[in-house]
C-alpha cells in the first residue's frame, strides 16, 4: 500500500512540476504533461503536444516527438493518456479532427496504430468516443480505455477482439484493476 501511495504521489508531483522546460531530472518537453505511467523502473509521460518522454532513473529523459516523427504517416495527435504493461506501452488521445487515436509500442521508439473497430451482432463499428484514460488489467492481459460519455473500450491482445461497454452517463477518466488475494 505504501508503494502504491508513493507512486501516486510521485506521479502527481511530476505532473504538476513539468511545465515544458528542461533541468536536471525534468524532461525537455514543449507541451503540457497530461498523464504519467510507471512500471518497475520505467516512467513515461505524454503531453498534449504529442510528445512521449521516458526515463529509467528519473534524471535522464528521452523525449520522442510523435507528431514530428510520424508526420505524413499518421495525423497530428494530442495525447490524453499513457499506460504500461510488462511488455507494451499504450498511448491514446485524439487526432485533430476529434477521432480517437491509440498507439502501442514495445520500447517507446516505434509506434503502431491500434485498430479501434469492434463488432456487435456481426456488424462492425469504430470507436468514436475520445479516450480520457487507460488502465492495464494484468489478470486478463488487456488494456481498457476510459472514454467520454461513460464508454469503456477493451483492447485485448487480439486486435480483432475489441469490445465496447457502456457503463455510465458521465465521462470515465480512471479505472484500476485489482484481484483479491486469497
Characterization of this structure:
The chain has helices at 2-17, 66-69, and strands at residues 33-39, 42-47, 51-55, 61-65, 77-84, 89-95, 100-105, 112-113, 117-120, 123-126, 131-137, 142-147, 151-156, 163-166. With 182 residues, the protein is mostly beta strands. The chain is globular.
Going by helix content, strand content and strand pairing, the class is: mainly beta
Q: How many DSSP-defined strands?
A: 14
The percent range for helix content is 10-25%
Number of helices: 2
Strand content: 35-45%
The whole-number mean of residue pLDDT values reads 81
Name the overall outline. Answer: globular
> Radius of gyration, rounded?
16 Å
Task: Label this structure with key terms.
single chain, 182 residues, mainly beta, four-stranded antiparallel beta sheet, 42% strand, disordered N terminus
Present the secondary structure layout:
Elements: H1 2-17, E1 33-39, E2 42-47, E3 51-55, E4 61-65, H2 66-69, E5 77-84, E6 89-95, E7 100-105, E8 112-113, E9 117-120, E10 123-126, E11 131-137, E12 142-147, E13 151-156, E14 163-166
Antiparallel strand pairs: 1-2, 2-3, 3-4, 5-6, 6-7, 7-8, 9-10, 11-12, 12-13, 13-14
Outline of the structure:
The chain has helices at residues 2-17, 66-69, and strands at residues 33-39, 42-47, 51-55, 61-65, 77-84, 89-95, 100-105, 112-113, 117-120, 123-126, 131-137, 142-147, 151-156, 163-166. The protein is mainly beta. The strands form 4 sheets. It has a 4-stranded antiparallel beta sheet with strand order 1-2-3-4. It has a 4-stranded antiparallel beta sheet with strand order 5-6-7-8, with no helix packed on it. Strands 11-12-13-14 form a 4-stranded antiparallel beta sheet, with no helix packed on it.
